[in-house]
Design goal:
Blueprint (H helix, E strand, L loop, with lengths): L21 H18 L3 H7 L4 H9 L18 H12 L4 H21 L2 H13 L4 E4 L15 E5 L2 E12 L6 E7 L9 E7 L5 E6 L10 E12 L3 E2 L5 H37 L1 E2 L2 E2 L4 H29 L5 H26 L9 H9 L9 H10 L2
Parallel strand pairs: 1-4
Antiparallel strand pairs: 2-3, 3-7, 4-5, 5-8, 6-7, 9-10
Helix pairs in contact: 1-4, 4-5, 4-7, 5-6, 5-7, 7-8, 7-9, 8-9, 9-10, 9-11
């Protein structure tokens, strides 16, 4: 129900940033074609079904997009964080946030725990299938009373001979229903040692692991989200990921990549929303003129466009720095806060300028507005991000 865009809307698409190379440009063009041909014509049905079909993820695996930064030994492309930004931005531009987050949790939030901390044997056993899309991953970190505050985690794992036994529950787990392999965070230290967290691999079908509830959400409807329950869930000792009691630091480290990815996704969503709204206001007639003829609307869209482009420069520069091995904790926290707030501000304006049409279910802008809301919450709420920045000022 979104109107056809004007041919000259391409003025909103900037030239590639000087830090981007030819492989980034080629990746962007390939992703954009894939989204246009294999996602947008079908994704409305995925919203109803509540998940992305496995065959779509398998296609993305065959094209090399599920292992962009992973070692070639496992089928990866060994690209840099700038390639991750391109992936996240283009998935965000699909206008289907649920599809985007399904992929990005697998590529940049769950499987990195195995790639970075796993043993050679663990990686050989799982990484090739992960990169091909044959084995989808989820990360089980969040609990009902422990989101950004990892110290509040209650799920425990205790060593019992040559096994670990996990007990507890995890909430709001993306890919929680359909994942094949879960990266699970659990406390392994003595009571009172709040940071003694370890990471484990738990395979789907392991006795004691069950999906206790499929969660209904405000947005991201094509992403499956679940509550997981662990009751005397026994796994082999070799399923420990990395060092015992060091999971807190692994989670904190990977959150930097996760937040960069979420910022890039939000950036793509905001840019696309502006493009769609530009097409609408140039066509929409009101009181003898188009909405584009109204100075207030023109200037507000120009301001939002400027803000998105400023965000883009910050995202690219930060990703480049990460690729050079630089620590960018403060900058990534800034990005997550800025992007999460900006995409919601952009979508608020876009719904407003679409008028009644923007409030109708099954319109692109209405769906994008619902999907955008979680960008200021998931992966670190804006308030938490600003505290991270404040501590480093």
């Amino acid at each position: 129900m979104t109107p056809k865009l004007h041919a000259n809307e391409s003025v909103l698409m900037p030239e590639e940033h000087p830090l981007m190379r030819e492989e980034h440009h080629q990746l962007r063009q390939s992703l954009r074609r894939f989204v246009a041909e294999r996602v947008q014509p079908f994704a409305h049905a995925w919203e109803t079904e509540g998940c992305v079909p496995r065959e779509v993820l398998l296609e993305m695996g065959k094209l090399g997009w599920l292992g962009i930064r992973y070692a070639s030994d496992y089928g990866g492309s060994e690209l840099d964080p700038l390639a991750t930004v391109v992936l996240a931005e283009e998935l965000g531009r699909s206008t289907y946030g649920g599809f985007a987050i399904t992929v990005l949790v697998h590529t940049d939030m769950a499987s990195p725990h195995l790639h970075h901390a796993g043993t050679t044997a663990q990686k050989r056993a799982h990484m090739p299938a992960i990169v091909r899309g044959e084995r989808i991953t989820a990360v089980a970190m969040t609990e009902a009373n422990a989101g950004s505050d990892l110290a509040g985690m209650r799920t425990t794992a205790r060593r019992d001979g040559d096994t670990w036994v996990i007990d507890g529950a995890k909430m709001y787990i993306t890919n929680g229903v359909h994942a094949d392999l879960y990266m699970v965070a659990a406390k392994t230290g003595a009571p009172g040692r709040n940071h003694d967290i370890s990471m484990f691999m738990v395979e789907k079908g392991t006795p004691g692991l069950r999906v206790s509830r499929v969660l209904a959400k405000h947005g991201w409807l094509s992403s499956d989200t679940a509550e997981l329950h662990f009751e005397r869930c026994r796994i082999p000792a070799e399923n420990l990921l990395g060092e015992e009691h060091r999971g807190f630091y692994a989670l904190a480290h990977n959150l930097q990549n996760e937040r960069l990815v979420l910022a890039a996704q939000a950036m793509g969503e905001a840019a696309r929303a502006i493009e769609l709204t530009l097409g609408w206001v140039r066509d929409r007639q009101a009181f003898g003129a188009t909405l584009w003829d109204r100075q207030t609307i023109r200037q507000r869209l120009a301001l939002r466009h400027a803000q998105v482009e400023a965000l883009r420069a910050f995202v690219v520069q930060t990703a480049w720095g990460l690729g050079q091995g630089q620590r960018r904790v403060k900058e990534v926290s800034m990005l997550k806060a800025l992007a999460g707030e900006l995409v919601n501000e952009v979508l608020y304006d876009c719904v407003q300028f679409h008028g009644a049409m923007g409030y109708m279910r099954d319109t692109t802008i209405e769906r994008m507005a619902r999907d955008a809301r979680v960008q200021a919450i998931g992966g670190g709420a804006t308030e938490v991000m600003l505290e991270e920045v404040a501590r480093r000022m």
